[in-house]
Write a structure and sequence with these properties.
The chain is of the alpha/beta class and 414 residues long. Helices cover 33% and strands 23% of the residues. The protein has 13 helices and 16 strands. The protein has helices spanning 24-40, 94-99, 128-133, 143-157, 167-178, 183-192, 196-208, 224-230, 240-245, 276-282, 300-316, 349-358, 379-388; strands at 13-17, 45-49, 78-82, 103-107, 118-121, 210-212, 217-222, 252-260, 263-270, 286-287, 291-297, 332-343, 362-366, 370-377, 394-399, 403-406. A 6-stranded mixed sheet has the order 6-7-8-9-11-10. Strand 3 (78-82), helix 2 (94-99) and strand 4 (103-107) form a beta-alpha-beta unit. Helix 4 (143-157) packs across helix 6. It is globular, with a radius of gyration of 26 Å. It starts with 12 loop residues before the first strand and ends in an 8-residue tail after the last strand. The model has no long low-confidence stretch (mean pLDDT 92).
Length: 414
C-alpha cells in the first residue's frame, strides 16, 4: 500500500481502533486517521474506538468523539487498526474487526505477525504515526491532523532520543512544525509533565529498585496495594521504566506493576545488547528491539525470575571480540556442526539411513521412534540435509553456525 486512498474505494462505513492501554502513538495515529477521513471523506461514516485515553491527550481535536465501548453488532465496510501489534491487543472493537468486510493493519512493531487482510507494517520506522504520515496526502494534512501525528511521534521516540529516530523522522517533524504545531507545549504537557503523586510514586520505585545480573539489569516494581495506597492508575506509571533504563551500567530495565491480583504488566527497555521484543514475545507479548512488554501471572518474584532468566540467556551470548579476520573461500576451511533429531518408522527408516550415508552424516543415538543425527560439513550442505528431511518429522535442530580457519601455511609457524 502506497496511499491511504487505495483502501477507501467503495467504503461507506469505517471503524478505527487502537491497542489496550493506549499510549501517545496509539492515540495520535488513530486520531490522525479519523480526522483525515472526517475532513476529506465526509461521505464515509467513520467511528473510532479506544479505551479511555489519558487527559494529557486532550489537546488533540475531536477526542470527545471517541467511543470507549462497543455498541450494537455491526459490519463495517472497512476496519483499520493503528499501532496494534496482534489481534489480542485490539481494545474495545475486536468484534467489529472480526466482522468487517475488509481489514487493514497500520503498524511498526517488529513482532506483528500480519493479522489483517492488508498489513502495512514497517518495523524499521519509529512510530505508527510516522507510518501513517507516509500514507497521507501531505497537502491534506491540516493543523489538527499534524498535531495528532506529532503527538504520536514524540511519544514513541522519547522526544526523538530513541535509536528508532531517523533523519526521515526529523524531516517529518519539521514538516509538521511548519503546519503550526505547538510543539513545545505538546512535549511538556503530554510527555514530561507529571503530577505530585506521580513523582512520589516514581521516587518510591527508584528507591526500592533492585540490581540483578552483575548490575546489568535493574528492576522496579509496584504492587496492587501500593497503587491503591497512592490512588494511582496504570497510566500514572508512564516514564518509570525509561528512567530506570538510564541507570549507569544497566543493559536492561524491567518495571512491573500488579494490575490484578497476581497478574503483572511487564515493561522492558534495552540499551541495545538485549532484544527485549524476543523476551516479550516468548511470554505472549510483543514490541520492539529496545522497548517491549507483556503480561504475566504469578507472584512478583516468579515474574522477575522468569523475565530475568531470559535476559541472562541473551547477555551470556555476548562475547568480547578480541580480533576479527576476514577469510575467502579459497584460502580457508569452513565447517558447521549440526545435530538434528527426527522421527522415524518402519516405512522411512531405510530412507533416512540412506540419506545419512549419502550426506556423510552419522547416526549418534536412537530410540524406538527417534534418531539423533550428527553432521559436520559446509553450511550449505547442512542446510541441504535439513531440506532432505522435510518429508519426515524434524523434532529438533541445533547448529553451531559457521566456523573457519585459514588453510595451513608454513608462515603460521613464524
Amino acid at each position: 500500500m502506497e496511499r491511504i486512498e487505495e483502501i477507501l474505494d467503495g467504503v461507506k462505513t469505517m471503524g478505527i481502533g487502537g491497542h489496550v492501554r493506549p499510549d501517545g502513538d496509539c492515540v495520535g495515529s488513530c486520531m490522525a486517521l479519523y480526522l483525515y477521513i472526517k475532513k476529506w471523506y465526509p461521505e464515509i461514516k467513520a467511528d473510532i474506538y479506544l479505551e479511555k485515553p489519558k487527559p494529557v491527550f486532550g489537546h488533540i481535536a475531536c477526542m470527545d468523539e471517541v467511543h470507549y465501548e462497543a455498541g450494537e453488532p455491526r459490519e463495517y465496510d472497512l476496519f483499520v487498526t493503528c499501532d496494534v501489534s496482534a489481534p489480542d491487543r485490539l481494545a474495545v472493537a475486536a468484534d467489529y474487526f472480526a466482522s468487517a468486510k475488509k481489514t487493514v493493519c497500520i503498524d511498526h512493531h517488529v513482532s506483528n505477525p500480519g493479522f489483517a487482510d492488508v498489513n502495512h507494517v514497517h518495523g524499521e520506522i519509529s512510530s505508527a504515526s510516522e507510518v501513517l504520515y507516509k500514507l497521507l496526502d501531505k497537502e491534506k494534512i491540516n493543523l489538527d491532523i499534524a498535531t495528532a501525528i506529532y503527538t504520536g511521534m514524540i511519544h514513541d521516540t522519547g522526544v526523538f532520543q530513541y535509536s528508532s529516530t531517523s533523519p526521515d523522522t526529523m524531516r517529518i517533524a519539521g514538516d509538521l512544525m511548519e503546519k503550526g504545531v505547538d510543539f513545545s507545549n505538546i512535549i511538556d504537557e503530554s510527555f514530561y509533565q507529571k503530577s505530585y503523586i506521580q513523582n512520589q510514586v516514581m521516587g518510591r520505585v527508584l528507591a526500592e529498585s533492585i540490581m540483578l545480573l552483575d548490575g546489568k539489569c535493574i528492576v522496579g516494581y509496584m504492587k496492587l496495594r501500593d497503587m491503591d495506597f497512592y490512588g494511582v492508575k496504570p497510566s500514572d506509571l508512564d516514564g518509570i521504566v525509561s528512567q530506570l533504563r538510564l541507570t549507569k551500567g544497566v543493559e536492561v530495565a524491567m518495571f512491573i506493576y500488579e494490575h490484578e491480583s497476581q497478574v503483572f504488566k511487564v515493561s522492558l527497555r534495552s540499551n541495545g545488547s538485549v532484544d527485549v521484543s524476543k523476551i516479550a514475545s516468548y511470554f505472549g507479548g510483543g514490541g520492539h528491539v529496545k522497548a517491549a512488554g507483556c503480561d504475566l501471572a504469578g507472584s512478583m518474584y516468579d515474574v522477575i525470575n522468569n523475565i530475568s532468566e531470559q535476559i541472562e540467556k541473551q547477555l551470556n551470548k555476548k562475547l568480547d571480540v578480541i580480533k576479527v579476520k576476514t577469510f575467502d573461500t579459497e584460502s580457508s576451511i569452513s565447517r558447521e556442526l549440526m545435530l538434528i533429531k527426527v522421527k522415524y518408522n518402519k516405512t522411512n527408516r531405510r530412507d533416512i539411513m540412506e540419506i545419512c550415508e549419502i550426506m556423510h552424516a552419522q547416526i549418534v543415538d536412537m530410540s524406538k521412534n527417534l534418531m539423533l543425527i550428527q553432521m559436520c560439513d559446509l553450511p550449505e550442505r547442512t542446510q541441504l540435509l535439513i531440506d532432505m528431511f522435510q518429508s519426515v518429522s524434524i523434532v529438533e535442530v541445533a547448529r553451531t553456525g559457521t566456523l573457519a580457519l585459514q588453510k595451513c601455511n608454513e608462515t603460521d609457524l613464524k
